[in-house]
Specification:
10 helices, alpha/beta, 2 domains, DNA polymerase, domain 1, 254 residues, Rossmann fold, single chain
Length: 254
Amino acid sequence: MIEAVVFDWGGTLSTWATVDLADMWRLAARLAPEHEDELCRRLTEIEGAAFARVRTDQRSSSLPDLLRAASGALGLDVAEVVLEEAATHYLDSWTPHIVHDPHALPVLGALRAVGLRTAVLSNTHWPRAFHEHFLARDGLAELLDVRLYTSEMTHMKPHPSAFREALRLLGVSSPSAAVFVGDRQYDDVWGAAMCGMRTVWRRHPDAEHYDGASPDAVIDHLPELLGILEDYGATVSAPRRHSARLGAWQSNER
């Protein structure tokens, strides 16, 4: 019996954003104008290297970690207040690109209506408050019982400790009683499966392929998850306040 559903955030609950990382770091780098170009380049490289660690030791990092590493690499003595301002500029540059999937709210509402526990587990170096702002803005925060960000954890997905912490906080009877939904085959599908969870891959054409990933189910749109959960023995139907939105999606997909 399914007791809980854990979601990835970027590309799963939120829409995939295609951005130029160097552009995102440019505003932060301008705080050191005499080193702007080099600092922007280093920040972009360090962020890429931080996410590349999913293939090695899966150690997590936070946004201040990245800023300190870039400043240290250039031999700059940057005050903490300047790092904080740089982080603010960087996050501000992301704000226009953060959009949640329009089906996330009704799907989460349907799960809540039948008593399934829900969580988000995101590989991120952004601070909790930044994520929470957008989840609350779009009404998703109150529908997620557990919200985990690897910027506050020692490791990121696919490290088993990240998934185990989500399972612990959800209080499920066993890993097989939880379903993980994500768009990345290695981080999400393979990682969750190695912890004994059922896995649903939200297909994305730009997601890196991983031969070791074998999802239990594949979806293209979030509402398809409801039928999969029904197959797993959960009785899921859209709550009345969300049924019109789900009906509109079904009509558009025919």
